[in-house]
Amino acid sequence: MKVRLLAVGRDRSGLYAPAVEEYVKRLSRQLRFELVELPEARKQAGTPQARDEEAVTILARLDPRERLVALDERGDQPTSLELASRVQRWMTRGKDVALVIGGSDGLAPAVLERAEERLALSKLTLAHRLARLVLVEQLYRAMTIIRGEPYHK
To answer: How many CB atoms lie within 10 A of CB 78?
Structure first.
């Protein structure tokens, strides 16, 4: 099983990128993991057209056989242990998984309709770059839980 994180935008501030890179490196030791950064629709930012333009890019990068998990504020909010159980189920099924974080305007309906699952990281609104960091850290935590390692206490 391969897990990919498709994320719209880049961390131009430099605040989160080093931590994201560290967790991506750790995750890559435990499973086939890839972070794919996709371009933002900057010219139309703040409009429904921006989400639609980003959706075209997202959907074009998906393999039709991948299980799509959309990060969405209306999604399930699992605990770390529940996320670990979910990741374990994904691994058992053996189907590749693509997690998607949209741009600042969120995900277009076309992406949400394609999703087999929706996850929310918090009831709080998180900056998209911060959400990326939280997600990769929680995926790493899930893998340590699955492997019985002491990271999760």
So the answer is: 17
pTM above 0.90, yes or no: yes
Of 97, 104, 101, 121, whose CA–CA distance to 112 is shortest?
101
* pLDDT higher than 90, residue 5: yes
1-53-40 Cα angle (round to 5): 75
The tokens for 109 are 């309906």
User: For 98-142, how does the pLDDT look when each residue is reduced to its tens digit (9 = 90+)?
Assistant: 999 999 889 999 999 999 999 999 999 888 899 999 999 999 999
Name the token pair of 23.
């967790």
Domains of the chain and any CATH numbers: 2-146 (3.40.1280.10)
Which residues are CB-neighbours of 121 under 8 A, at least 6 positions away? 71, 77, 131, 134, 135, 138
76 SS3 class: strand
